Amino acid sequence: MSKTFRIPVLLLLCLFFSAQAHAGAITRVSDHQTVTMQQLTAKAEAVDLVLIGEVHDKPAVHDLQLSIIRSLQDKKQPMAIGLEVMQSNSQQQLDDWVSGKMTEEQFQPVFAQNWSYDWRLYRDIFIFARDNKIPLIALNVPKEIVVKVSRQGYKALSKEEIKNLPPGTNADLNNTHTEFLKRALKHRHCATAAWR
Does domain 9-140 bear CATH number 3.60.40.10? Predict the structure, then answer.
């Protein structure tokens, strides 16, 4: 998707809201207050970007994510769903999934190549997106680039590899994006790495 969208994007990351699956509670990270689904949805309708925390192996968290997506869809909010679980080099398969060109049986191996957690945890979100033609956006950097940078450093990337990264990507850990993440996650534990 090359167009710039001014729409809510649901990212399955740990940042502004955290879902506590065991209690079914939604906690606002900024002030640690519990909010209702209606409060969260009202806030989500008014912003361009919604970031939803998750515990990868907790079905209740994925159910909550789907509830938020459904709520926004019911209110006719235009949206796309950004997925940490998919690498950017799988975007075409995501597009084919949403357009109905791939069956579930064809798509499951693609999902498994991208993410080690059980397909069934995420299945309902993917099915809902396909059935409602909600664009899915692959957010993760391809694994081979992650491995190369972790072993050899960012400078080892070729010009071609850098060209395939999001614009402005660099290895400078002293940038405004990193500072924002440090502030936002100061009191939270999160297993998500953000690339910029």
Answer: no
